[in-house]
Amino acid sequence: MRFQWLLLLSSLWSVLLFSLPADAARLLLWRFDASQNRLVFTTEGGVQPKAQLIADPTRLVIDLPGTTLGRATVNQTVGGAIREVRVGQFDAQTTRIVVELAPGYTLDPQQVKFQGASPSQWSVQLPAPQRLAPSTSTSPPPPPTRPPANNPPRSRPPANNPPPRSEAPPSQPATGGTTAGMILDSFQVTRDGFFVRTRGGEPENIQVRRSRDRQTIDIDVKGASLSSRLSAQEVAVNRFGVSQLKFSQEQSSPPTVRMSLKVTRESPDWGASFNSVGGLVVLPQGPVAVLVNDSSSAPTTPPAKASEQLATIDAVELSNNGTQLLIRANQSIRASSRWERSVNAYQITIPNAKLADNVRGPQLDENSSVSQIRIRQQNPQTVVILVQPRAGVQVGELNQPSEQFLALELRRERPRTPNLGSIPVPPPTSNTPTAPLPRVPNSRVVVIVDPGHGGKDPGTIGIGGVYEKNIILPISQEVAALLERQGVQAVLTRNADYFVDLAPRVAMAERTGADLFVSIHANAINLSRPDVNGLETYYYSSGQGLAQTIHNSILQNVQVGDRGVRRARFYVLRNTSMPSVLVEVGFLTGRDDFVKLSNPTYRSQMAQAIARGILQYIQQSL
Ligand code: ZN
Questions:
Q1: Cys-Cys link to 466, which of 217, 251, 462, 470 (CB 3.0-4.6 A)?
Q2: pLDDT tens, 212-252?
Q3: How far is the CA of 12 from the centre of ligand 1 (A)?
Q4: 564 C-alpha to ligand 1 centroid (Å)
Q5: How far is the CA of 453 from the centre of ligand 1 (A)?
Q6: Domain boundaries along the sequence of the chain
Q7: Which fold has domain 446-621?
Q8: CATH 2.60.40.3500, applies to 6-18+308-412
């Protein structure tokens, strides 16, 4: 859907493509060799492809940044497990090659091998596509995890899997009971339990038995065998009250795989179900009480005693840059925790504590790893804390660093929903596309990166109603991140879409004792002048050297017109005491610049060029 939409957009833009610089790379030829599952392509001019596997339908997407096709979309129908190969102009700067699999097939992104014989000659070797297990029409499997929701964390199985499809696989229809046999391929711990990726068919049945001493749960999967990777594997897990998990192949007819979970006596029962999109979902039945310090050898925590001295919880706060929620008490506490489906939050229960009067929890804002924390005295001796992670944040283990402290891990993850995995593409063998950014190790230099406008102030409004504030924020954020990575302290005057007046921006620079001030804007003239495009860099007094260095870096590394380094009386330039500049990255009313600045890849190139200029200036002058 998205792909077609973008193709549509790019055809709207096709008229603008004629104004592209002549030295961009061009896709000269491509060929898919179905007998070898190999795609080859040749460009005029070097290119560094980017590749990812996307679900529903499953397709391998290869982007060639800085490359044009110069003609309409081309399809090659392949047939079999690989349905077709399409090549089209994704956007003004990017040619996209899509290898689409037939419904019901996928491939292992880790087996996709790119090889660049030169920057302009590439071959992509695909593994044999694998058939996804067909859906059963009788009893659709239960959803393997909790809230489908707006914030699916990454490690849970469904996020990594294509959603169940309604259409039947094309060629081999499922023949009841006589499937070729399922193979258990790989294993992962999810937030809820375990997920075992499978291929080839479905199990005949699944039986779960718990031993008399309650310390072993055997899950027998009939009609299945183990991949060499999982063969006779023992995995120490220490999660959800499970200390160890073992896979073994039972010699029987039909072949049966046994998954043995070593559990504590108190551990809930476990169940397993087959999920037709490619795996076994193994989940505890009922709430999991994950005991703090949960491990196979640790003695279990004794139940609460009425006579027990109650601890007082004095603080609940975020620490370690928001990656940890710390709970502090005045004396020893115990806790259990679990994901609470009904409120879509992680629940920490402390059965021997009361709340101090002044405990409010941390101040949260839109950058916090947590969107909401609720703290309550559930009964006279029990405190309950509900933690709702923000989208893209995964709740890790609840640890107890000392008797009086609990620490909950919060890990940020890159959001990815339909993406089955990005595929590493090695640089071509004869390379040197761009030099690495200069490093300024152990530097005390502070750079203010100032994305203009924000919030109620959209800045310039360009072609198609695009707002300047939204174009320049990601550029500024990337500049700041790159500077930090290279050893320079970068401070953003705003890090999201909110309004900041000019005076506070200057004040921030003065207060932090910043060494450099770099304001980032986009230009505009008038919608009737799409012919006006290009880069302008401004300074007022001491910023001339910095302006020139950044301006040159952009011209060397980005395809953009040159409108010169200029002097102007902008507020932020006049009122800052350090060298300060204002970069107008391009004209949102300009036909060329607008198309380019709408492209994240181009914006990223722009950010890198600005960061490179700043770093060069620091190396030379500070
Ligand atoms: Zn502006």
A1: 462
A2: 888 899 999 888 888 877 776 677 776 777 888 888 888 77
A3: 27
A4: 17
A5: 6
A6: 6-18+308-412, 157-276, 446-621
A7: Aminopeptidase (3.40.630)
A8: yes
